[in-house]
Amino acid sequence: xxxFLDEFCRLEGxxxxxxxxxxxxxxxxxVKGMKKLLETPILRRIFVEVSEQEPSSLKALGQIIEFGxxxxxxxxxxxxxxxxxxxxxxxxx
Length: 93
Description:
By secondary structure, the chain is an alpha+beta fold. It has a single domain, classed as Vaccinia Virus protein VP39 (Rossmann fold, 3-Layer(aba) Sandwich), CATH 3.40.50.150. It contains four helices and four strands; from the N terminus they run H-E-H-H-E-H-E-E. The chain has helices at residues 5-12, 27-32, 35-39, 55-66, and strands spanning 18-21, 45-51, 69-76, 83-90. A four-stranded mixed beta sheet has the order 1-2-4-3, covered by helices on one side. The longest helix is centred in the middle third of the chain and has 12 residues, at 55-66. The relative contact order is 0.19.
């Protein structure tokens, strides 16, 4: 069973401050299901693993950035030459 993160937060009455996304090539689907959450200023940090060779992963990262987040740390995943972990924080400017 799958549920969008926006729907889960609504049903449970929660709003996270931090989210970790590690879904290997399904990042775009996760981002599509959390658009309301991405608009919420309570969400401050997102940790996401992105494949630099997968266009949909890069598109998901771009969409997160469009919601006012910026990458503050990018590190290569050990033993994976095309994957990087990103830490994004909400740009408060």
